[in-house]
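Pasting two entries for a bug report.
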Amino acid sequence: MSEVYGVRRDRLRERCAATGSAGALVSRPANVRYLAGGGPPGAVLLLGPAEDVLVCPRAPTGHPTDGRPDERVRLSLLPTSGGDPAVAAAELARAGGAGSLAIEEHHLTVARHRAIRSVAPRLRLADLGLAVEQQRIVKDEEEIACLRIAAEITDQALGELLESILVGRTERHLALELERRLIDHGADGAAFPTAVATGPHSGRRGHHPTDRRVEEGDFLSVCVGADYRGYRCEIGRTFVIGTSPADWQIELYDLVFTAQRAAREALVPGVAYRDVDRAARQILDAAGHGEGLAPLTGHGVGLEINEDPQLAPAAMGKLDACVPVTVEPGVHLPGRGGVRIDDTLVVRQEADGGPELLTITTKELLAL
């Protein structure tokens, strides 16, 4: 991986040089990990023409959640606690004779920006913008392999939960159990707070688990994902508890399943982001559920659980091969509940078999 990180940094260095910046100060944690391999919380990466320096508030521990810094990057530890690595990195750039530096203005606070200016007043600061985030959109096969393992872990954890007794247990309890099972199967942690929603809560995007207990006849919606070596996936499924589904539940489930399948089938290189969203949204809209739909049908995943691209009505851009995304349409009926079906897939050329489905837990409407 050392060579991979070096190539990534060189690509960014070339971009900075083309815009007149001698180097870059990368502070967003996911971007630091992408370019340097890892580092303790708070670490920043200083890209220079001669060397790259990872400025750390403390020494790396080697913990999986922090990653492992590339050996080709020089480590610089702050001499005292409480210092700001971004400010220290700017001082290093100034001391090294740099006249300009690109920074991530969207990540740095105003206070940190002022502190950098105070220690290096003659250093010309330019906005790096979303250069690293854009570079991260297309994944290499090693990144996709990590996502594939994260998906396998998530499928295993969810599958085991579905084999246990669910009636009478609370949403909060089930969410905690799912996260424990992720760890048991090798995850470094949960990719995001696990959502378990029952009865009238089901089908709601981003639901926070409560003490509501699972009851016979409920819809049960689960959205969960594993973090494996920094890479995060997502799966969402909806089930019926303890009895045969009611007619309205079957009808609603079939509708969301049809919309999700249409969006999955639209995932081909060159398709516009908005067209993937439209494939699902027009089906749900035609059935009378246009109002109240989520603002997007899916999004990119990787070192963060919500990355570009955004599969949304106004999104600009087109999909490339080797871009992992979620497809997650849902409908929530206030007071009754609803359905969400969510998969993580990788966009592939048709010659390579089309979109690669990473999350394989059944999408049948099971009665548990």
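Entry 2 (this is the one that rendered wrong in the viewer):
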Amino acid sequence: MINVNDFKTGLTVEVDGDIFTVLDFQHVKPGKGAAFVRSKLKNLRNGNTVERTFRAGETIGRAQIENRGVSYLYASSDEHTFMDNQTYDQFSLNSKQLEWELNFLKENMNVNIISYNGEILGINLPTSVELKVVETEPGIKGNTATGATKNAKLETGLNVQVPLFINQDDVLLIDTRDGKYMSRA
């Protein structure tokens, strides 16, 4: 059990039989009435985000999430196959479970699988990945007074806004948390 006063971003908890990760929280002490904790939680089973308020001092279950290293092997139709790096066991996840992550996954990429009591909940990506630009317009000289950007399509199909000096076939560092351009690799 964990006290809601001890919430931290990224903490995994069990509430009403579902597994959540804490995205954001705020301790509120109103002038009148009891203190409470307002939180934003992401359901790890279906990906939905909910806002939930707890009374200060309330205790809830802590979920013990297991992280294992796996390699992304290939995609076939709606299934994406991974291999456990220790046991070499292969398993598949469907595209619905990996909606956001598919923007960054490349074959033979190492990621962490998240599981709870043997149930696979999803994957954890590294905070940044290197992706190649497959399509972008050439930058127009003289259009750089205000840090202008242009659209670029990456090898995974993700579209990002990049500075004008980025060209086709450049390899970029992309933040997997928000899908934004960080720098050239």
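Dev reply: Rendering is fixed now. As a check, the viewer should reflect this: DSSP finds no helices and 16 strands in the chain.
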